[in-house]
Amino acid sequence: MYPKEFEYASPTSLGEAVALLKKMGPDAKVLAGGQSLVPLMKFRLASPKYLLDINGISNLEYIKENGKFISVGALTRHHSLERSELVKQKLGLFSETASWIGDPQVRNNGTIGGSLVHSDPAGDWGSAIIASRALLKIQSARRERIVDSDHFFKDTFTSAVAPNEILTEIRVPVPPDGGRSAGAYEKLERKAGDFATVGVGVQLTLSRNRKTFEQAGIGLTSLGPTNLRGKKAEKALVGKNVSLETIEEAGTAVSEEVKPTDDVLRGSAEYKRAMARVFLKRALTRAARKAGASGV
User: Fold this and answer.
1) In terms of DSSP H, where are the helices of 101-132?
2) pLDDT digits (tens, 9 = 90+) for 51-103
3) The pairing of beta strand 213-221 with beta strand 198-206
4) Could you report the per-residue pLDDT of 190-233, keeping only the tens digit for each?
5) ∠ CA 89-90-96 to the nearest 5 degrees?
């Protein structure tokens, strides 16, 4: 099937892009990597009157350290985040998350910004930004604003980005140094490259003696109407001893707070709840060991 007819524009600057969006109104769609939007258009599940291709805005693709943050341009490809040495060294959670996305073709073409704005609750990046407490920079013709990851996902396939706005940057706090911070992403999928049945992203910081959990961020994939924060599980960790018992308590907490639904392809809500517990424990154990813990 082919998409319905649309008008196409390819701006070369952010200023031009937001001006065009303002002019086009809500009938416009922004094309970033196109790995989600193009299939929807082919099946006519999305039929925009205007298609605004922002791939010509070269200064929206970057990974750089900027003070207390690592800034990632919204047009940065999944593959770049998977391979970046800076990301591997300081944001292992992001490197791991990128490696789980789709197949090589998708990772080479898809963008982190496009994935986040698409806001599929089965999307992996949502959990990574929630676990890392990232900030998201959004631009319109009138203003720039910053939204934190807890307020970015409004509903299924609905983000905080308005029709006249473009997501331009993801700002990820640099974890404390000293080798006591680490992240991990664990994913259950039916087959390689599939959307998650369950996904869990964690970002941990241990105390200097590696005996307690000092900070904990947990993001959950495919376990609710949007990517979720595991608030109860985080609370079960922070200030507690680094031990298998504490991790078990966090697993129990997450199984009680997730909101899965029955799915004929990927299993029952009960099954997903059980897998949330299992995969959180795996992610926590692996991240804690990467951060130097010896009690798990």
Assistant:
1) 104-109, 112-118, 124-131
2) 999 999 999 999 999 989 999 999 999 999 999 999 999 999 999 999 999 99
3) antiparallel
4) 998 889 999 999 999 999 999 999 999 999 999 999 999 999 99
5) 75
CA atoms of 250 and 204, how far apart (whole Å): 13
Q: Which domain holds residue 118?
A: 61-173
Distances (CA, A) of 200 to 90, 95, 196, 210, 289: 19, 14, 10, 22, 17
1 assigned to some structural domain = no
Lookup: tokens for 6:
């649309």
Cα 28 from Cα 132, distance rounded (Å):
31
With tokens 């959180």, the residue in question is 280
Q: Does residue 120 have a pLDDT over 80?
A: yes
Confidence (pLDDT) at 12? 96
71 located within any domain: yes
Bridging pattern class, strands 166-173 and 50-53: unpaired
**Residue 1 neighbours by CB under 8 Å, 6+ apart:** 42, 43, 44
Cβ(75)–Cβ(116) below 8 Å: no
Tokens 């990851």, located at residue: 149
> Which CATH number belongs to the domain containing residue 66 in this structure?
3.30.465.10
Query: Residue 81 in contact with residue 89, Cβ under 8 Å?
Result: no
**What is the model's pLDDT at position 45?**
86
Model pTM above 0.90: yes
How far apart are the C-alpha atoms of 192 and 254, rounded to whole Å? Answer: 25
β-sheet bridge partners, residue 169:
73, 137
Nearest to 134 by CA among 179, 88, 167: 167
Strand pairing category for 63-66 and 69-73:
antiparallel
Q: What is the maximum span of the chain, computed from C-alpha positions, in angstroms?
A: 62
Nearest to 201 by CA among 150, 276, 104, 261: 276
> Domain holding 277: CATH number?
3.30.390.50
Mean pLDDT of 248-254: 98
